[in-house]
């Protein structure tokens, strides 16, 4: 047996936090060293942070990243370590993995396949490195190999696939396998999305099997730069067998996952494989020889246990809870806000937002320990005095119910019950007089009284907008982060009041649809996340039909009466926006999916969706930042772009109606 201990380290970085990023990298290196790992893979661009945006183009950022690299290098004694940074070569910027061994820099490998779809914009800053090209770069009077390289330590060959490199059909790993690479390291910055872990697991396992190698995967962790959340996936596989999987969505600053691999075993798999065809021409590919000896180690049993929430039937609900909770916790501490403020209406969206704020602190306390959680929030004066997690939630979470004459006792009681259940501060503001003053100003401007018959939208919106200044004032007084509470379904059709219920610095649930959110709230009422249990008080929310409560109570206003059933709205949104189907194609699909609805009514709802979608792009452009959770995101800054002004699908909608009338006549 030729045994080697390898490690994957995940780190929770912040763009341009030079000292913090460096400290976490060094701590991960030290822990891997203490665990006697000889080879360590750290994430892509972990020195600068992945989310630096146009700051990557700054010459000073590039120089500082190299300075940090030189500071880190001496701490890699007795190890082979990879970590990422931006580097310029001949005036062109590349996304590069630096390779360090035994305290020295030994080479640089630029990324060959850039992520340029969806939330990723790498081609804006970086250029892809050509396959098979090797060059040299001079730093501080020394020359280093730079390019498509593999590395030899002892008799082991090590190759790299950098994040997107493993997601393309022509993976660099397939070429490296043909020259007999023993280990492939994959430093990644792969954003969280529902179900994405399973996809990564497949390419890690399949890469290790098909390439007859061991494969080490290390992703970033946490809410790095505001929108993207990284789940901290760490995996080590060998010959098609998973040897280790790290904890995902952790609240720790870094985690190290280790495993012992057997080079002789994967070489034996390669030797007995009739399908393996060595590439003798490819064997001329540059190999960087590293003067580093792998120590002899003892075998270790393969034993890793997945967290209970990873293996149950509620994985998506668990992922949503933990991803948003982690995102909120990181946003709070990285923005140095002193807490959260939520305008708690007694409805589903604001209840979900407040509950997730509470869970973010409770989950952090359970994993880190209450003392470590308080230490991470030491910039919050009130947190220092808290002696329990309930007291800490009270010190950092304010919920505000702002009533008008159109508000009902049901929503007030629901808001009070939820705030009490999660130990939040609860405030009850009456804003009718403020609404009346604004209404009087409008009547004065028009020279007539306002009425629901003629001024419905304006009278609704002024209530939502009047709530904004008071809740902003509370957030300012507290030094807290005001959270807006609009969901993705509302964003799709503009069912929100700009500068009203959209007010806030962050909108944690804007990336999720209303139908799922209601399912999640029911699950939270009855089951809840593993290790935390249910919140029965949510029944007061879940028994209600969602309503904005902006019209007089006798109108019995509900969201679905104003729009359409949320389940249908979300299905139309997926067809029309995610899948880019025309109104007619969407209509035909909805007929198949929702046979319980009248065809004429379906067409009316589909027309309503397309018109409202087109009219409200300006609102989506102004929404507070939100967390990216799946490929149905509507955020125009990171995922789904649409013109603010457009033809509004008039021709396509007319085609739908003609086709429907023709079907009726036939």
Automatic annotation (TrEMBL):
Residues 4-263 form the CN hydrolase domain. Pathway: Cofactor biosynthesis; NAD(+) biosynthesis; NAD(+) from deamido-NAD(+) (L-Gln route): step 1/1. One of its GO terms (molecular function) is glutaminase activity. PROSITE patterns: CN_HYDROLASE. GO terms for cellular component: cytoplasm. SUPFAM superfamilies: Adenine nucleotide alpha hydrolases-like, Carbon-nitrogen hydrolase. Keywords: ATP-binding, Ligase, NAD, Nucleotide-binding. The keyword Nucleotide-binding applies. Belongs to the NAD synthetase family. In the C-terminal section; belongs to the NAD synthetase family. This is Glutamine-dependent NAD(+) synthetase. It comes from Blastopirellula marina DSM 3645.
């Amino acid at each position: 047996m030729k045994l080697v201990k390898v490690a994957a380290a995940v780190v929770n970085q912040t763009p341009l936090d030079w000292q913090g990023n460096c400290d976490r990298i060094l701590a991960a290196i030290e822990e891997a060293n203490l665990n006697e790992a000889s080879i360590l893979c750290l994430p892509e661009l972990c020195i600068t942070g992945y989310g630096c945006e146009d700051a990557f183009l700054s010459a000073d950022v590039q120089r500082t990243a190299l300075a940090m690299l030189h500071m880190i290098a001496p701490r890699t004694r007795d190890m082979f370590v990879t970590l990422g940074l931006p580097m310029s070569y001949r005036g062109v910027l590349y996304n590069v993995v630096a390779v360090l061994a035994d305290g020295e820099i030994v080479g640089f490998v630029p990324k060959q396949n850039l992520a340029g779809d969806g939330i990723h914009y790498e081609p804006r800053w970086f250029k892809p490195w050509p396959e098979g090209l090797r060059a040299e770069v001079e730093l501080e009077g020394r020359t280093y190999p730079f390019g498509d390289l593999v590395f030899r330590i002892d008799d082991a060959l090590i190759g790299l696939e950098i994040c997107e490199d493993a997601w393309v059909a022509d993976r660099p790993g397939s070429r490296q396998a043909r020259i007999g690479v023993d280990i492939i390291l994959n430093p990644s910055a792969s954003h969280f999305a529902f179900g994405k872990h399973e996809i990564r697991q497949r390419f890690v396992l399949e890469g290790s099997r098909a390439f007859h190698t061991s494969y080490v995967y290390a992703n970033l962790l946490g809410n790095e730069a505001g929108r993207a959340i990284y789940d901290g996936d760490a995996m080590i596989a060998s010959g098609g067998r998973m040897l280790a999987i790290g904890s995902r969505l952790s609240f720790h600053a870094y985690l190290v996952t280790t495993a012992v691999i057997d080079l002789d075993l994967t070489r034996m798999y390669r030797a007995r494989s009739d399908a393996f065809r060595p590439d003798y021409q490819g064997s001329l590919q540059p190999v960087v020889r590293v003067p580093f000896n792998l120590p002899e180690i003892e075998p270790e049993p393969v034993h890793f246990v997945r967290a209970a929430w990873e293996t149950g039937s509620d994985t998506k609900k668990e992922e949503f809870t933990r991803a948003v909770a982690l995102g909120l916790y990181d946003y709070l501490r990285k923005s140095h806000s002193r807490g959260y403020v939520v305008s708690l209406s007694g409805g589903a969206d604001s209840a979900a937002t407040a509950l997730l704020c509470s869970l973010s602190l409770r989950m952090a306390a359970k994993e880190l320990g209450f003392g470590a959680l308080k230490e991470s929030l030491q910039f919050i004066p009130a947190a220092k005095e808290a002696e329990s997690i309930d007291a800490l939630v009270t010190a950092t979470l304010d919920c505000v119910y702002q009533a008008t004459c159109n508000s009902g006792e049901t929503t007030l009681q629901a808001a009070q019950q939820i705030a009490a259940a999660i130990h939040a501060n609860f405030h009850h503001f009456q804003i009718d007089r403020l609404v009346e003053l604004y209404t009087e100003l409008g009547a004065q401007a028009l020279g007539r009284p306002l009425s629901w018959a003629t001024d419905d939208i304006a009278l609704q919106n002024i209530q939502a907008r009047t709530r904004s200044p008071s809740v902003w004032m509370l957030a300012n007084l507290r030094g807290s982060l005001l959270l807006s509470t609009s969901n993705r379904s509302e964003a799709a059709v503009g069912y929100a009041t700009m500068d009203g219920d959209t007010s806030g610095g962050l909108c944690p649930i804007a990336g999720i649809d209303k139908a799922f959110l209601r399912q999640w709230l029911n699950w939270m009422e009855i089951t809840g996340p593993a290790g935390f249990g249910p919140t029965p008080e949510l029944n007061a929310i879940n028994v209600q039909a969602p309503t904005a409560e902006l019209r007089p109570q006798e109108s019995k206003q509900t969201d679905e009466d104003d729009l359409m059933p949320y389940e249908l709205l979300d299905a139309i949104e997926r067809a029309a926006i995610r899948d880019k189907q025309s109104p007619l194609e969407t209509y035909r699909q909805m007929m198949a999916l929702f046979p319980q609805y009248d065809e004429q009514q379906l067409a009316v709802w589909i027309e309503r969706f397309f018109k409202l979608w087109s009219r409200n792009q300006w609102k989506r452009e102004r929404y507070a930042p939100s967390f990216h959770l799946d490929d149905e995101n509507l955020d125009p800054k990171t995922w789904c772009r649409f013109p603010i002004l457009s033809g509004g699908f008039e021709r396509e909608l007319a085609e739908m109606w003609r086709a429907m009338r023709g079907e009726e006549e036939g």
